[in-house]
């Protein structure tokens, strides 16, 4: 703008001078003839008005042209300046809102980024904990692998020696353990027996006393080392482990029980021997014990309860819950049931509820294949979701929330039934009844 004003003043000044010249020339009416009159205002040696006129005319057109160009350029500059000012004004006013909006966007983006970072930090923290757990597991597994490798190496060393069975099995066999004892066996241990209708011989634990009485052991609970929650086929075939020193748990198998007890000859006496957690031992003896074939679902049969301080739980027990308790819990004549083969007298599934295989009624008063509870006492909460009395129970001795420590089920022919209370009556019965 300052430049523009200078030009304007200059332009104005030039006009003033020219007007002065013209006004003077016009005042003396100069012509080509008289314009050479000296004008005192130019001094004695100054050019004449005509000289100035000529000089002026000589340059006027060029100066006018230059001034026009200059004016045009000035106008262009003025236009451009105005446009620029307008643009600056527009930019200033227009930038404010977008800038605010963009600031908001930046804040949002930064907030979002911070949130992402915090989220990632949390994830990383969690992952680090997981990695640490896995690392611990890896270390633990590495230790186990090392231990197993050492054991494998030790076994490998052992197996370089010719393998020898460390369990001594006698050559003496018979149709049951009494038969084995009759043939001269005098030691408790493992023997092969082959009942009359058995296709193959099989191994059993025979408990033989000094008098030559031979008990065939059918079931053993000792320490809870064997899970008795088994299927029909497992109860049929038997499970667990036999040991000559009577230190392991097993179920000899329903099929074998049936093969042994279905033989002709003296009927068998079943002795149930129990030990509680105080170390007290009691027993219950049943004469005429039989297990029917699988076609009759290995039904339990016996003639009667002989004796035993443990009491006759196989005859049921009045728990006080219902007048029918005793009739719902006796066992004689019951078929065998497992969780996958329900033959009980209950609309539900006793074997499934109690996790065992047994001659279930609705359900039991004596239950020797139940769950093993350390220290005996247990509650409905301990018994699991069903909350039923599922321990190793003999209700005529201890109540149903007391699980026994040890059990043995073993049989002997009635003619070898040991002398004791009720023995005379029993032998008489056994002889008169003959084979059952
Ligand atoms: Ca049922």
From TrEMBL:
As given in the record, the signal peptide range reads: 1-27
The biological processes this protein is annotated with in GO are:
blood coagulation, common pathway; fibrinolysis; platelet aggregation; positive regulation of heterotypic cell-cell adhesion; protein polymerization
Q: Which InterPro entries does the entry mention?
A: FIB_ANG-like, Fibrinogen-like_C, Fibrinogen_a/b/g_C_1, Fibrinogen_a/b/g_C_dom, Fibrinogen_a/b/g_coil_dom, Fibrinogen_CS
Q: What's one GO-annotated cellular component? A: fibrinogen complex
Q: Which UniProt keywords apply?
A: Blood coagulation, Calcium, Coiled coil, Disulfide bond, Glycoprotein, Hemostasis, Metal-binding, Secreted, Signal
GO MF terms listed in the record are: extracellular matrix structural constituent; metal ion binding; protein-macromolecule adaptor activity; signaling receptor binding
Q: Which PROSITE patterns match?
A: FIBRINOGEN_C_1 (PS00514), FIBRINOGEN_C_2 (PS51406)
A Pfam family that this protein carries is Fibrinogen_C
Where does this one sit in the cell?
A: Secreted
Q: Where does the Fibrinogen C-terminal domain lie?
A: 168-415
Please tell me whether the keyword Coiled coil is annotated for this protein. Answer: yes
Q: How does it assemble?
A: Heterohexamer; disulfide linked. Contains 2 sets of 3 non-identical chains (alpha, beta and gamma). The 2 heterotrimers are in head to head conformation with the N-termini in a small central domain.
Protein name per its UniProtKB record: Fibrinogen gamma chain
Species of provenance: Protopterus annectens (African lungfish)
